[in-house]
Amino acid sequence: MDRTPFLFLASADEAWITEHKEALLRDFDLNVFRLGADLKTALADRQPDILLLDTSLADVDAYELHRAIRDDFSTCDVYQLLLCSEEEAGRTDFVGDDFIVKPFSDRVFFQKLALLKRMLAREQKTREQMSYAQNVAMTAMSSMGDLGIVMEFLSKSFARRTIQSVGELALNAMKQYDLDSIIHFTWEGESYAARTDGAEIAPEDREHIAQMRTLGRLLEINKQLIVNFEHTTVLIKEMPDDSERCGRIRDNIATLCEGIESRVLGLLLEHDNLLKQQGIRYAVCEIRDSVANLYERQLADMTAGRELIAKVTDDFEDTLLHMGVMPEIENRMVGQLVTLRQRITDIWSKPGEVDAKLRSVINSLQTLAGDVGAESSTGGS
Q: What pLDDT sits at residue 300?
């Protein structure tokens, strides 16, 4: 083990203490007690790794003392090595961890202590490994919890349809980190800012954000954290003192801000696409109405043309009657006019390629215009 084991030696045998003290000091941090009362007082202040208890203490029943130490919750984990008689070692109420029966040789005694040192070293290493594993587990759990806040924001943000509601959701996420935060958005000449506690944002904070917006992605100044994106700025008023937690929060806030910015960009793109879509539909509606008007004018012109040909033919017949033309010539000319009028009527009464194309274009434009077209048509009438 890295540190020197801490040993309490309680014995009234001065000669034995004097003989072994120097050797014990080479391997242990040693405290020696001649009285049981002094030992009990010391145990209340500090716990040794090993208690070497000689049962021949003069002022107390050392055997009863070792039982009292084991029965006390605050001292029950102290490793007790008793220096006792064979009779005491054989008692049914013995609760010590180990014993050496007196009299014993130095070789046996120091071998026993060497075994204890190795045992303590293994226990210390095990405790260190367990502590490290516990710290890793706690760090992982904490990191998962922190990352869970970011994941929760990302999953819920897609249901938010305005930048303001995205900001509210982001502030709720930052509240879970126990951070006093300000979020600030700018887009298309507009802006929005809010604080986690709902308080009014001070003018100096607004000015500070305006100054920091163009100075880099991630800034830390006087325990403040500023994260900047094109449309999003987050100001953390005071980061934690714990450097490990501060590092985790910095990483998670940066990830959170990236998610916020992505959702803002998505909303702006959706809004832009909606405007473009509406513009296209209105343009299609205008084109549809123009083509429909053109078609109606064509039909009107054809009708007017037929009426004009009919009138011209009738007028020409009347003129011939008053001119005194020979009957056979008059009949021939009138017959030719009637034939011409019939042919023109036959031509105009057929749909034709132009008419069919105009109808197809109008139907296609009607489908593209959709509701906007219907509204425009209703409003126009």
A: 78
